[in-house]
Prior knowledge:
single chain, D-amino Acid Aminotransferase, Chain A, domain 1, nine-stranded antiparallel β-sheet
Amino acid sequence: MNILILGGGGREHSLAWAALQNPKCDVLIVAPGNAGIAEIATCADLDINDGAAVVAFAEEHAIDFVIVGPEAPLAAGVSDELRVAGFLVFGPSQAAAELEASKGFTKEVCDAANAPTAAWARFNDPESAKAYIRAQGAPIVVKADGLAAGKGVVVAMSKVEALDAIDNMFGGAFGAAGAEVVIEEFMDGEEASFFVLCDGLDALPIGTAQDHKRVGEGDTGPNTGGMGAYSPAPVLSDTVAARTMEEIIRPTLAEMVRRGTPYQGVLYAGLMIKDGAPRLVEYNVRFGDPECQILMMRLGAQAFDLIHACAEGRLADAQVTWADDHAITVVLAAKGYPGNYEKGSEIKGLSGLDEDSFRMVFHAGTTRDGDSVLATGGRVLNVTARAATLEAARAAAYADVDAIDWPGGFCRRDIGWRTLSD
Ligand code: AMP
Ligand code: GLY
């Protein structure tokens, strides 16, 4: 099979790595890819948000199957254009991708599906939004409706903070994404992520994880795209996972079918769990990054079969073979991230690392310059390990972190703390 993966982050490196373990994979092209991906697959320079360009590329390279990594091409309708042209695609339609692209849409779907989530209201003028905040009080959560690269959410502990957030969002801080805001009840509890493959009505859970969104140790400082993650997440026990399927995921999928926009792809549910009861924080219509890296490491060669079965609508017969293992990934980021950071610093020590099905360094923002690997992004490397216990996986990952020589980078040293300190 000739496979095209769209994207160029650590998520796509891990998807490529998993696909290559599967004998079905003959040719693998990743667009745009990065320096790590270039070591295992062909990288192609392609505007992945331009559906016509992606279709033309897929035709030219006799692609059999396209896996879409990030949300932007999904929200832009690239999967629809590929399907119209006759390609097999993993990833939802533009209409179904609204589950990530519009927070208001997700809330409407949850209400129709009777799925537990925070109480909410939607506003498109600042004065009525502020009146609502004054009436509700704090803590309260203010969200830009559209895609804002994970930065459009303010969890306000005081009314003043919430009112400021309204001024910011309607003042254009998030462009068109902030023209409408959703204001939500603050939910208390422990957060975890749940990943489910869906092909319309059938759904198959493929793992749980906990991310570390803040840049600093002890969950301090500004939010990032994620500084590290581990799987499984103990708070998402089998019982909580079963409740999530029954109360949240299946009703959502049924509502999407009822609307005529069935959901196909991976559905990533961000949950707030309190006293064993899950409530939905948000949906994403793609794998998490860096959560994908640990899921791929735990699933190994079967990951590609599952993704392929999902795209072909064969999930009813699919099964996950679970190993009793744990995986962790530590993000190395450029100093200054998530604010301003320098690009172009050299990373050494990568070639000396042992890489196998237990230890991998997935690349995110890297490029190759001759024999050197240079940092080009904010989040740059995902140092990933798998072992029988989370402690052992963590020790292996940090041993590799310490063997990488990159003075321009930093990481959190406490990935996994929530579970390891219990
Ligand atoms: P989102 O982009 O919707 O995932 O929100 C980003 C983060 O804000 C989440 O991961 C939560 O930590 C927090 N958050 C969002 N909505 C709520 C809520 N209703 N109550 C408490 N925390 C929330
Ligand atoms: N790591 C969080 C995300 O991918 O949205």
